[in-house]
From TrEMBL, chain B:
It is found in: Cell inner membrane. Residues 6-256 form the ABC transporter domain. One of its GO terms (molecular function) is ATP binding. The keyword Ubl conjugation does not apply. This is ATP-binding cassette domain-containing protein. The keyword Ion transport does not apply. InterPro entries: AAA+_ATPase, ABC_transp_ATP-bind, ABC_transporter-like_ATP-bd, ABC_transporter-like_CS, Oligopep_ABC_C, P-loop_NTPase. Its main location: membrane. Pfam families: ABC_tran, oligo_HPY. It is a peripheral membrane protein. It comes from Bradyrhizobium jicamae. Involved in beta-(1-->2)glucan export. Transmembrane domains (TMD) form a pore in the inner membrane and the ATP-binding domain (NBD) is responsible for energy generation. Coiled coil: none annotated. Gene3D superfamilies: P-loop containing nucleotide triphosphate hydrolases (3.40.50.300).
Amino acid sequence: MADAHATMIDAPDRSGVQLNDPAAGDQTDVVSGRSRLRLNLPLVIGAAIVLLSIGLALAAPWITAHDPLEIADASLSPPSSQYLLGTDQLGRDVLTRILYAARTSLAVACLSAVLAFASGTLIGLLAGCSSGLIDGCLMRILDILQAFPALLLAIALVAALGANLPNLVLTMGLLFMPRFARVARASTLSVRERDYIIAAIGLGVSRMRTMYRHVLPNVAAPLIVETSLTVTLAILTEASLSFLGLGVQPPDPTWGGMIAESTSVMALAPWLALGPGFAIVFVVVGFNLIGDGLRDALDPRG
Amino acid sequence: MREPLLSARNVVRHFPVRRGLLQRVVGQVRAVDGVSFDILPGETLGVVGESGCGKSTLGRVLAGLLRASSGELWFEGKSVDAQTGAELKRLRRDMQFIFQDPTSSLDPRMTVRDIIAEGLDAQGIATGRTREKLVHHILDKVGMQQDTAQRYPHEFSGGQRQRIGIARALVLRPKLVVADEPVSALDVSVQSQVLNLLVELKRELRLTYVFVAHNLAVVSYISDRIAVMYLGRIVEIGEAATLYRSPRHPYTKALLSAMPQPLPGNRPERIVLRGDVPSPIDPPSGCRFRTRCPIAREICAKREPSLERASETAEHFVACHFA
């Protein structure tokens, strides 16, 4: 149908349309708004912390000479030049275990947060765009999920499914999914009545495409922020579950598990809890900073 | 006589009112309640009325953004309501809409280029260089600089945003453009610029406008014919000049008397309407205007006046027992 438009390209006289809009001259500020994601300090610091953590976790074999499961004959030895953060009851090097635990903890936390983001956003969009019955049913299911105390639900699910890594990710994903679904639904409800959605329909854009091109980008910002905050929650939940013996099973190290093991000898060897505790705080602060930074960076109006 | 571009026959649009736990329908808001008229190719029909009279709803129904609850809408001899899927999509190219609020009608996360080209993409009209060319051409036509294409809507003033909205509608080369109060959200100084732009574009692209507004001065400037709405109905419709010179319906007279006059002195008597507009959920019996009408009598409550020809010579219709 391009022929109908050919006339428009070579329309000869358009002098009459060049009106003097005084505001049209006000276009000096060209630089801003070009790139969608502008860097800010919290974002940079947070990203640096998280990247450093991931880097340390991946580089663990080259950083320490020990193996996380290797048992030395010096148990509960305080920090020394050979064991930088000391050893635990069985004589395993604490620093090595913290570094290896970072792999599991970060992987579990990130995967479950992403799972929660993907499933929650999909459900929220669906509920927000459909009306009445489907919306009602989905929301009531979420109500039921959220009515359980979070940790209780996690314990029940892990106990029922069996304590291994995929089940842990699945359980935590399900646990955090309703948060995303609610945020996505609420934003969708407010966005779908906007004029630009109606405009898109008026231009002949299909419903699916409208959802993908207009609704999703406009509800994405709070959800992405939510994801980075959920990672921190997931790290803490994984620590709690491991502490209770339902997360990653010993002898594989996790931060929560290490703190749990240290409780009996806390007074004798406080370094056992301090190391993994600090690791958790470090990573949680990193992801929180990313969350704060993204919230500002994702707004094109900045 | 020419074939009408768009014909409305007894168009009705009701919105259900839901209450209570079970969301039962307890009533209907009769936003548009039986409206009929023809729009000829190339003319501008102004639709005026106070807030809540249904003029915006009518505009959206005419542009195909809302389905009519009942009644018929014919566009170039084809029934709009019968169109679905690909046919409806094709039809949307010919009838475009300009929104009142230029801020909420532009997606804040899209560049001006993508906003304007969205119709081209959706309709599969142009890609690549051609798409770019059409976008730049229409930007030029609405008086925007070329470097605006890669910027975001929030970087522009209200008047500029409205130009972008106009560009988005006109890049599809529609035949009918429904403009819903396109200048009422703008500064007065910018209003006339946008109005002039609309007039220029209409002449150049041979457009047909339905121009919805509450500002009589704006409507009289741009319209060939004017329809006056009250509570979901057209109470008077006629050529702009005739309607202004000799309004027949008491509501039209009251509206016109409220217009500021440029010359002091020869000011006609001001007719002040008392009370509020009755609820469109439960409109008055008979003539809907009777509760506020200065000349209402018994018959007005009993029988609803229909649109009757008010003049032998001009196309002028009025719905009043005493006009």
